[in-house]
Every structure is written in C-alpha cells, then in structure tokens.
Write a structure and sequence with these properties.
The complex is a heterodimer of chains A (109) and B (114). Chain A has 109 residues and is mostly beta strands. Chain A contains no helices and eleven strands. Chain B is mainly beta and 114 residues long. Chain B is 0% helix and 50% strand. Chain B has no helices and eleven strands. In chain B, strands 2, 4, 5, 6, 9, 10 and 11 form a seven-stranded mixed beta sheet that branches. Chain B has a four-stranded antiparallel beta sheet with strand order 1-3-8-7, with no helix packed on it. Classes of the chains: A mainly beta (109), B mainly beta (114).
Amino acid sequence: GQQVMQIPQYQHVQEGEDFTTYCNSSTTLSNIQWYKQRPGGHPVFLIQLVKSGEVKKQKRLTFQFGEAKKNSSLHITATQTTDVGTYFCAGRAGNMLTFGGGTRLMVKP
Amino acid sequence: EAQVTQNPRYLITVTGKKLTVTCSQNMNHEYMSWYRQDPGLGLRQIYYSMNVEVTDKGDVPEGYKVSRKEKRNFPLILESPSPNQTSLYFCASTATGGGNYGYTFGSGTRLTVV
C-alpha cells in the first residue's frame, strides 16, 4: 500500500534557527496536506498543495510540493517557541489520505 | 462553532468489555474517519466513511467496528478490547472525498485497556 515517510523524526533547534521537515511518498500523489499538532492537542490543518512544483507561504512557513508530486517539504524561518509541536504531512492517492510519521519540533528559548 | 466532538476524552477499561467512542460533527461533512496515534507510528487510519451507510477499512481495522447511520455521527466500537488497542484515537471529518479538503480533527480519546 501507499507509504509516506517523513524525516527527521525529531529536531531540536535554538530559537531563531531555521527548521525543515521532509516528506516522501512511495506513489505519486494527487495532493499533499500539512498539519500541526501541539503537545497534548489534536492535528490542525495548515495547508494543501495540489500542483507539481507548487510553493505556498504562510508567514514564516514555506511549503513545497515536488515536481514529481512524490515529495514535499515544510520550512520554518527563524523558529519561535510557539512553533513547538509535531508537523505531519499527509498524501492523497485515490480515496486514501495517508499520514507521515511526523516530525517533532522542539525549540530552546 | 464548527467542530468535531469526541467522547469520552479519557477511558480506562478492562480486556473484553465492549466500548463505544462517539464522534459527531456539525459541519454537514460527508467524509469521516477514525485514526489511532501511537508513538513513532504517526496517525494510522482505522475506518473511514464516504457518506451515510458507506464505510470501508483503513490500514488497521482489526478489532474495530464502525457505523454511519446518520451523516453527523460516526461511532467507533471495540467489541472485545485488548491491551494492544491502548492508544490515542482521533475522529476527523472533511467536506467530501478522501483528501480534497483539509480534515477537522476531534480533541482525541485516550484509551487504556488493562
């Protein structure tokens, strides 16, 4: 079945440093979504990318969808303590949305 | 407020005692799904429903049942819970299809089976 791999699993950064998480799918995706889960919370939808090579920005967050529609990345510029949490990608193929394992971001003030 | 409501938030039960986790959404969403979240394994889909009376297995359906008799409700049933079903469970809904729109998640149910 479809597999979505996400790396790294954990990332510690100093506040102000940049952060990137990568997502790779075993199959070509129709779209990819990104979610953020704060500690003790539930996943919250951030954004969806649909087109090959698409780049979207939300303030300090930049999302990219690969040309082959099999990979994606989330980059956070100048992290803040409010960015702490686990970031999940989720790739759609057919009627299934498959989540990656998530990257847990920890930010030292 | 648009939301997905799960109950209970926390549940401790004994092996073999049937239980139901309820999920309700007020957004008139067609698609609903159940996930379990375990450390290091991310979110794994248990069952999903494309619409009323239409349900299908996800990646890890063994030991679970669901029903979709009304559009707003999608309960998760564990007929005979076992300790390996100890997990954090999330219900989610979206407007239509399997991933054309972002999912709205409930607050989660932390289940412990002893």
